[in-house]
Amino acid sequence: DSGVTQTPKHLITATGQRVTLRCSPRSGDLSVYWYQQSLDQGLQFLIQYYNGEERAKGNILERFSAQQFPDLHSELNLSSLELGDSALYFCASSVEGLPDTGELFFGEGSRLTVL
Amino acid sequence: AQKITQTQPGMFVQEKEAVTLDCTYDTSDQSYGLFWYKQPSSGEMIFLIYQGSYDEQNATEGRYSLNFQKARKSANLVISASQLGDSAMYFCAMRSPYSGAGSYQLTFGKGTKLSVIP
Fold it and tell me: Which helix (H) or strand (E) holds B60?
């Protein structure tokens, strides 16, 4: 158990709909990262938050947005869903600051299926 | 920009044999970190091993060792005495240098699917 909690674990929805994925980082971790893993693909970095502020943006579509709340949990909002958005969405958290290695602790992922 | 390359989409290894999974990286940074993660069919991402760019010794964790060749920019994962439970996807990743709070980012390779044959 990594200590990172993601909900829901599975989600099935229709094209055009909107969903929200939720992530609670490990206790004390200030950074939250979102990754998308499509079928047979590697991990695509979407976005990173640190202590409530956006720190880095990757290949995140404009239809997607995220935020980190004062209690450090984070939500990833996916709207106007398309078939191609079907994927496993991971949240990860990390300790920040030296001498930390920068290891990411991953949640179990939220598997989104768009029909 | 950092880049990780894993050239082996799939690998097979006989049970109890050793196997090497290749990883090369590209960066202009002097300070960085290298990781290997395992993803079994159940989907979770499991941290295996870490190597810092200034570490002189190759990292080892049980049956896992990281063959770090800095000049060649390679960080191959060696799994000794393969077990059936080692069948999984393996991802190599590189961390950016530390430049203040919240600055760490990991870039992942596309992964190698390892199948262990009884």
Answer: strand B60-61
What the block records as the tokens of A73 is 């949990």
Out of B44, B101, B109, the one facing A106 most closely (by C-beta) is B44
Burial of B75 (0-12, 13-18, 19+ CB in 10 A): buried
What are the tens digits of pLDDT across the range A27-43? Answer: 989 999 999 998 766 78
Judged by CB atoms closer than 8 Å, whether chains meet at A88 and B43 is answered as yes
Q: pLDDT tens, A85-112? A: 999 999 999 876 555 677 889 999 999 9
pLDDT digits (tens, 9 = 90+) for B69-93: 999 999 999 999 999 999 999 999 9
Interface of A with B in 26-85 (CB under 8 A): 30-31, 33, 35, 41-43, 45, 48, 50-51, 53, 55-56
- Cα(A58)–Cα(A60) distance, integer angstroms: 6
Residue A40 DSSP one-character state = T
